[in-house]
Amino acid sequence: MSTAPIPPRDFLLGDTLARYATDSAGRAQLQLLPAALAGRAATRRQHLDTPEARALPAKWQPIGARSWDSLVQIKIRGEGELRGRAQGRTLRNTPSTQDLKLADLAVSTTDDVTTVLATLRGAAGWTVEHRLSWRTGDRALTSTTRLSNTTAAPITVEHLSSFSLNGLSPFASDLGTGRLHLHRFRSAWAAEGRHERLAAEALHLEPAWAPFAARSERYGQIGSTPVNGFFPWGAVEDAVAGVFWGAQLCLPGSWQLEFYRQGDELNFSGGLADRDFGLWWKTLAPGEAFETPPAWLAVVAGTLDDLCDRLTAQQTRALASQPASERDLPILFNEFCTSWGSPTHDAMLAAADRLAGTPVKICVVDDGWAERPPEAVMQSNGDWIVDRQKFPGGLRPTFNALRARNLAPGVWFEFEVCNPGSAAWDCTHHQLHRDGVVLRVGGRRFWDFRAQATHDFLAEKVIALLRDSGAAYLKVDYNENLGVGCDGTESPGEGLRQHLQGVQRFFRRLREELPDLLIENCSSGGHRLEPSMLGLCAMGSFSDAHESPEIPIIAANLQRLILPRQSQVWAVLRAADTPARLAYSLAATFLGRCCLSGEIHALSPEQWTLVRAALDFYTRAVPLIRDGSTRVYQENLGPSWREPSGWQAVVRTARDGSAALVVVHTFACTSNATLHDVRIPIAIDGNWCVSASFAAVTQTTVGESSSVLRFAAAPFTGTAFLVSRS
Q1: Helices (H), 222-376
Q2: Sheet holding 417-418: strands in order across?
Q3: In terms of domains, do 142 and 182 share one?
């Protein structure tokens, strides 16, 4: 029996208005609006009045302009399949979703968290609870969905969203042609974070002449490297209203985001990859429940950088439990690009002696410290026996010597896999299987982290070595994607989800047993840069771009996706580097965490003086790297990252507007000019001045009341400024 529609209910969560509405059938949807602009929401047209719509038979009239969309997207097996030419394209708006009815809507506040709880019922009696939460001081919201089997028989869920935003844009009364743009960030090995802005029409999300078929753009990633393809992030922009809606998923495995349209309004949802996209389904016995991974949501009247600032700021809270040493964002030296996988005791001490008296605080032994068979070129994971030819006394004497030189010792592991030639390779009963056979990707097999035996084995091999050697820093690598999933549960995707839950449980055990340990989240550079993994670690490797010209471009784009204080950027230094090349490499580290590598032992006194100047500048910039808001300016930046042109500036401004860090990189000139004319907006109220600089260009114009920093710079240079109120 249908019910009369009720007026929307609004909940103020910080400066965001959450608007819940129901239709005459009792179905519910959710809109988010900047509270300051809520009064500008448009009245939507209800019917189409186009010539082609009017030409339809009277029995079909009126033709609706809107297509109702739910705040929860769900598919329960056996409740019917999609129509509207949507099979194979989407699992949104299934019969399970269409039958969802709002049973209750309540708000509660516990401590400093306000939660709006929407309780919905399925036609067969199962229950869904959607939670939208806001913590005092945050500028984004958290969305989760919980499905409870409140029936007397098992149910199998094949799709369940973490969030679903409806009715975009609420500031348009009709189709809004040309005003909606979609944003996402592509990612690939050594090329993370390429921003993409596309009109809804360019993605073929313009509805047809009548709302009889769905339009869908579903994207995501399958497997155990969640940032290999795209970042789990998406946004919708209303370019006329100047409003952005954004979402960040917090999960370490397969995921999907989806832009969907059937009528005037665009809808945006996401969460775990569903049955069609990621071979995921889960069966719940009577009384059982399942809760989705969280999604962070934000809406802002402003720019893309404003939206990104809100979402990245959500990552800050998880860092409160990190060791106190992280407060100063210590500089690292990692020898990987020095030895390329062949570290030794003597080489580590030579590097440590060169670093004496500098602000560098951490010295990391990378891959190659463990024994490996003669045929192995690189890693030998699984047994992790120290190579006594390289480290005659084991790692402890080396680490003691590093500590004597005031350097915290670190070591590399890739502990989730094993390689051929190790004794562990044949322990197949504790390794992942798919389709009944051991899962092998190239030269790697994967430990099954659902098994307690795996955790116990790694406690002996990894935690014991870290404790016995006195390691203060752990670089955790992960260099292969295990794919769609594994055996052992009702679906490959659910096996993957449970396995990765086990991986994260081991990360937490590392922190529990070694509370002062700093952990680096590295996965082929940047393949795990998502919130749930970053929240377990002090920092992440920004990329495997070690010496290439695109390093500053990647590092700048990542400031929109992860906190700079967690983005470890390489500066690989070579004896053959010119001063301009050294400055280009070193300046890029001011976009995140400074990590040196390369031939530091072979640098000339003049080169080392430039390195020391960079390290001193970084130390002064730490407060702004640690906390601030970012604006990225890219001028005439061509499509190629490998052969870049134009110039780029990143301005990191203090929250109180009192100071800013400005990092500038120039690339090839795009005309016959030999210099770039760089002009950078500086958002500091009142008069300001340059208080410090690194590798500063010779021509600098700074007006006391000017809002622009301007100078001329040659191609492929790196420079940085600290500016403050004068």
Answers
A1: 275-278, 304-313, 336-339, 345-355
A2: 417-418, 444-446, 440-441
A3: yes
Whether 613 is in a domain gets the answer no
Q: Check which CATH number belongs to the domain holding 721 and give it.
A: 2.60.40
Q: Is residue 553 part of a domain?
A: no
DSSP letters spanning 419-445: -TTSGGGG-GGGB-EETTEE-EETTEE
The alpha-helical segments, DSSP class H, found in 484-604 are 492-513, 531-534, 551-558, 579-588
Structural domain total, the chain: 3
Q: Provide the pLDDT for residue 701.
A: 56
Q: Which residues contact 656 (CB under 8 A, 6 or more apart)?
A: none
The token duo for 356 is 């004496």
The two three-digit tokens of residue 411, written as one number: 């070591």
Those residues of the chain that have pLDDT short of 50 are 1-4, 703-704
Same domain, yes or no: 294 and 417: no
Answer yes or no: are the C-beta atoms of 180 and 266 closer than 8 Å.
Answer: yes
Contact by Cβ (8 Å): 596, 364: no
How many distinct helices (H) and strands (E) make up the chain? 14, 41
296 phi, psi to nearest 5 deg:
-95, 135
Cα–Cα distance between 660 and 492 in angstroms, integer?
48
pLDDT at 672: 84
Q: What is the CATH number of the domain that holds 66?
A: 2.70.98.60
Does the residue 567 lie in any domain? Answer: no
Name residue 118's beta-bridge partners. 105, 130
d(CA 191, CA 554): 7
Same domain, 426 and 374: yes
- For residue 2, give the amino acid letter: S
CB atoms under 10 Å from CB of 220, counted, come to: 22
Which residues form the domain of 685? 631-725
φ, ψ (nearest 5 deg) of residue 321:
-90, 0
Task: State residue 695 phi and psi, 5-degree precision.
Answer: 50, 40
Reference 159, options 290, 25, 294; nearest CA is 290
Place of tokens 């949802």: 269
Residue closest to 432 by CA, chosen among 449, 411, 456, 455: 449
In this predicted structure, what is the pLDDT of residue 419? 94
**Residue 552 falls within a domain, yes or no?**
no
Condensed to tens digits (0 to 9), the pLDDT of residues 329-343 reads: 999 999 999 999 999
Beta bridge partners of 688: 725
Global pTM value: 0.96
Which residue, chain included where needed, has tokens 């999907």? Answer: 256
* Per-residue pLDDT at 376: 65
Pick from 235, 239, 104, 117: nearest CA to 178: 239
Which of 526, 541, 556 terminates a domain? The answer is 541
d(CA 147, CA 126): 8
- H-run or E-run covering 192: strand 191-199
Residues 89 and 222 in one domain: yes
276-298: burial string, b at 16+ Cβ within 10 Å, e else:
bbbbbbbbbeeeeebebbbbbbb
For 37-51, what is each residue's pLDDT tens digit?
999 999 999 998 889
Same domain, 224 and 364: no
